[in-house]
Amino acid sequence: MRNLLMTVSYDGTEYFGFQTQPDGNTVQDHLEAAILGLTGEVVKIHGSGRTDAGVHAREQPFHVHTESKIPVDRWRMALNGRLPADIRVTDVQEVPLSFHARRSAKRKTYRFSINANRVPDVFNRRYQVHHPGQLNVENMQEGLKYLIGTHDYTSFASRHSTKASHVRTIYEAWIELDRSGNYSGSHEQGVIHIFMTGSGFLQHMVRIIVGTLLQVGEGKRKPEDMKKILEAQDRAAAGPTAESKGLMLWEVLYEQTDLTAGDLTELNNYET
Amino acid sequence: MRNLLMTVSYDGTEYFGFQTQPDGNTVQDHLEAAILGLTGEVVKIHGSGRTDAGVHAREQPFHVHTESKIPVDRWRMALNGRLPADIRVTDVQEVPLSFHARRSAKRKTYRFSINANRVPDVFNRRYQVHHPGQLNVENMQEGLKYLIGTHDYTSFASRHSTKASHVRTIYEAWIELDRSGNYSGSHEQGVIHIFMTGSGFLQHMVRIIVGTLLQVGEGKRKPEDMKKILEAQDRAAAGPTAESKGLMLWEVLYEQTDLTAGDLTELNNYET
């Protein structure tokens, strides 16, 4: 038995999220089918977490136990040959059996992208929410700062959340303004990327934070309102849930010791 | 009668090119249908040139004559509301009746994008040709230089070209290497963007140049072979035609006097 840690990038537009659902058509279904095709094994993969329908991932980790003897450096190309073009395995390595893609995760970073120009960018239309009209980015940055730290994020969680505790930690949160893709001669706002790094995120948490921050940017709320909303511990206090298409799982980090502990003598990292 | 100059960006994946074809489903068809919906006029638009099926455009100019009294600054949003999400009008301005989007064009720039990393970028999979394996970019740059100038480009033109002369001028040609999108920890080549600016391009010309340059990058040909291929004036001397998905019409430039001459007292540029 070996434990393989892989990372997968996907354009989530056509999928009902990462994790298997009763109605099918998830990223997990495609990955498990590709592994079945390669090894003949019916496996269950374990993602670093769920993603909502329409959400994208840049390098989402998952692990899978396998009896296959296929060398680690063959898996990536073999799986990609069996996957649709909008799902690509980007890395495969062997890790200790104790490693778990979700439970071992230390930090997760999400990015939410808002195109604030008057015309949507056709080439990124699947990955950006189009929000024309002036946004006060400085106020959005200030509002975001109130959310950093360890808090009960009930106000920013779906009412359908089944988690016992809504206490999470946001380590860092910041905004990057990208004006590089602007059309020549335009004097537009650019694309606003909102990043959040935390211990974990509740259902819809990033999207509700963004939906509320957009109200701050529009001047409908003040930056310091974010603090009051947090303290209310009431979903009704926050703004709407921003569209899933703007959200991308950006990065999941582990302790290096979790990846290399145990009796492994060599880290089978295809990349290095 | 007014003459409107517009620019349009499109993801060409789903279309049979810009210009109307017997089998339909072109960008021009959609633009003319949107104008009909807005003004009630059956019009024929004139693009800056054709693009092949599957080729993209960042800001392709076209002009159209209209009797409509709708103010210039209303057109963009009104047309975009009638167009599919992969076609967007980015600018509309009124120009002299003497202006012609194709005949007035002074310079055209194309970009061809090659992803040379081992795994394709799912988010740009529609706009990049995936070419894993080592490419000698310096040799490709050197080979490209032999094409700059005024030459007969028969070797790099489709055999179906019906042009009386294959003499054109390439003013500039250069390569930009973009490693920004690389996955963390990877030591990969990045994305190779090949740019060419010229007076005009023959059918398939950029794609055949790129297909040949890829052979230079792979070491199958030497950089100086580009000179011999050019001199052969024979399509058989060059390499294959690169896939259309990697090609994007990047920019078309006009003389400012062509845009503002005549009896116009004001340049109705929505952006400025």
Automatic annotation (TrEMBL), chains A, B:
UniProt xrefs under CDD domains: PseudoU_synth_EcTruA (cd02570)
Identify the Pfam families for this entry.
PseudoU_synth_1
EC number(s): the record gives 5.4.99.12
Pseudouridine synthase I TruA alpha/beta domain spans which residues? 8-102, 145-255
Question: Enzyme class, one word?
Answer: isomerase
Which keywords does this Swiss-Prot/TrEMBL entry list? Isomerase, tRNA processing
Indicate the residues that form the catalytic site. 52
Where is substrate bound in this sequence? 110
Keyword Isomerase set for record = yes
Q: Which GO terms describe its molecular function?
A: RNA binding; tRNA pseudouridine(38-40) synthase activity
Assembly state and interactors?
Homodimer.
Function as written in the Swiss-Prot or TrEMBL entry: Formation of pseudouridine at positions 38, 39 and 40 in the anticodon stem and loop of transfer RNAs.
Give the family per the record: Belongs to the tRNA pseudouridine synthase TruA family.
Q: What is this protein called?
A: tRNA pseudouridine synthase A
- Give the organism's phylogenetic lineage: Bacteria, Bacillati, Bacillota, Bacilli, Bacillales
